[in-house]
Amino acid sequence: MMKFKPNQTRTYDREGFKKRAACLCFRSEQEDEVVLLVSSSRYPDQWIVPGGGMEPEEEPWGAAMREVYEEAGVKGKLGRLLGIFEQNQDRKHRTYVYVLTVTEILEDWEDSVNIGRKREWFKVEDAIKVLQCHKPVHAEYLEKLKLGCSPSNGNSTVPSLPDNNTLFVTAAQTSGLPSSLR
Fold it and tell me: Where primarily located (predicted)?
């Protein structure tokens, strides 16, 4: 299913969830130092994880890399699929979240030129705090990473899982945990 917006085609899965992809961008494969966030296009004083909607016929990993390039102006080595996260409340999004090790940082990039988007490296703990205020689903990506999804042992793999064999993480599954563990 697809809905058309000016300059953008939105794609949906069989259950009506908007298909999205994002990357947690790190400086090293250790995934423990700092993570790259970008300013929101809607609220420039707030930070988000770079990501966005998937184009028709686009694979989730390709969409994730495209979105990071457009929004954050970085290229890198795509690592593992961290998980597929659902947001049910108001938006019905299903987001494939990958880990990316940044290898190239552009001085000027599409969203910096067109809409003045900024990017900044945050310590993982600080990023979680910043995201919990206005993008709690984005904070969940980093919280899941910290909960023991250990980094790959240098072997980057990009699994292509059919929709019926994927693991979904919802806000309801983590809402009962203290915020330090979510």
Answer: cytoplasm
Sequence ranges of the domains in the chain? 18-149
Is residue 152 within 8 Å of residue 68, measured between CB atoms?
no
- Give catalytic status of residue 33 as yes or no: no
How far apart are the C-alpha atoms of 132 and 109, rounded to whole Å? 27
- pTM score, two decimals? 0.78
Q: Which residues contact 52 (CB under 8 A, 6 or more apart)?
A: 20, 21, 22, 63, 67, 70, 71
Position 96, amino acid: Y
Domain 18-149: homologous superfamily in CATH: Nucleoside Triphosphate Pyrophosphohydrolase (3.90.79.10)
Contacts of 14 (CB under 8 A, 6+ apart): 1, 163
Q: Comparing C-alpha atoms, which of 29, 36, 30 is closest to residue 51?
A: 36
Strands (DSSP E) contained in 109-156 are: 119-123
**pLDDT interval class at 23 (50, 70, 90):** very high
Catalytic residue (one of 70, 107, 120, 125): 70
- The per-residue pLDDT for range 71-119, each reduced to its tens digit, is 999 999 999 999 999 987 677 999 999 999 999 999 999 999 999 999 9
Structure-token pair, residue 78: 């795509």
